[in-house]
Amino acid sequence: DVKVTQSSRYLVKRTGEKVFLECVQDMDHENMFWYRQDPGLGLRLIYFSYDVKMKEKGDIPEGYSVSREKKERFSLILESASTNQTSMYLCASTHSGEYQPQHFGDGTRLSIL
Amino acid sequence: KNEVEQSPQNLTAQEGEFITINCSYSVGISALHWLQQHPGGGIVSLFMLSSGKKKHGRLIATINIQEKHSSLHITASHPRDSAVYICAVPVGTSGSRLTFGEGTQLTVNP
Predict the structure, then answer these.
(1) Which of A17, A57, A88, B57 has a CA-to-CA distance to A10 between 20 and 30 Å?
(2) Is B45 in Cβ contact with A102 (below 8 Å)?
(3) Which of A50, A97, A107 sits opposite B41 (nearest CB)?
(4) What is the pLDDT of residues A57-107, one digit of tens each?
């Protein structure tokens, strides 16, 4: 079974802090994604990566950056956390190409106080 | 306007009822995804389909490419089917990036 592991289920941080969310997958997937999920808005793509050291902006990249130094790990960074970044964050991975299911982590519920 | 529209947003059913969730999309696609999210957050992929119908246990997904419409049916619903059901379609050239509907919250009461 594919395993996508997010480092924390719940996280509480303060405004202005630099926050790191980590995601690791064990199936040698080329593509990895970071989403945030908010009530009434559904899943929205923040950033994705299709290879090591490669990244592309999604629909809502402002206030975030990412890092992919190794194929199995994709990190989401909140450079200076703000209260409007309180949300559920989900990581996913998939092989390249069409007709590939996305495999999701369990999510990190992040609260910024 | 979202490229993917789901209806209804919320659905409450009694155990044993037949359930239908609808998804309409505005872009041309090669495949459509149905996903399930249980309380607590984890999301699993239920179906990917590009034509016709797929069945897995009590779940059936259909798609009409010409009408840009898909349905997810649950037969003999059970309380454990209570979850958010999400429809998604590929965007861009790679086929890997998805855009998602807002989801349908299904509650099945015993």
Answers:
(1) A57
(2) yes
(3) A107
(4) 999 999 999 999 999 999 999 999 999 999 999 999 999 877 788 999 999
DSSP, residue by residue, chain B? --SEEEE-SEEEEETT--EEEEEEESS--S-EEEEEE-TTS-EEEEEEESSEEEEETTEEEEEETTTTEEEEEESS--GGG-EEEEEEEE-SSSS--EEE---EEEEEE-
Q: Which of A8, A87, A100, A106 to mutate to test the interface with B (most CBs of B within 10 A)?
A: A100
**Does any CB of chain A come closer than 8 Å to the CB of residue B93?**
no
Neighboring chain A residues of B2 at a CB cutoff of 8 Å: 42
Distance CA B32, CA B59 (A): 15
Asked whether residue A2 carries a pLDDT value surpassing 70, the answer given is: no
In angstroms, the Cα distances linking B37 to A20, A97, B25, B64 are 24, 24, 20, 24
Are residues B7 and B56 in contact, defined by beta-carbon separation less than 8 angstroms?
no
The answer to whether the beta carbons of residues A20 and A12 sit under 8 Å apart is no
Residues 6+ apart with CB under 8 A from A71: A28, A29, A30, A51, A52
H/E stretch holding A102: none
Q: What's the pLDDT tens digit per position in B31-46? A: 899 999 988 778 999 9
Q: What is the pLDDT of residues A26-38, one digit of tens each?
A: 999 999 999 999 9
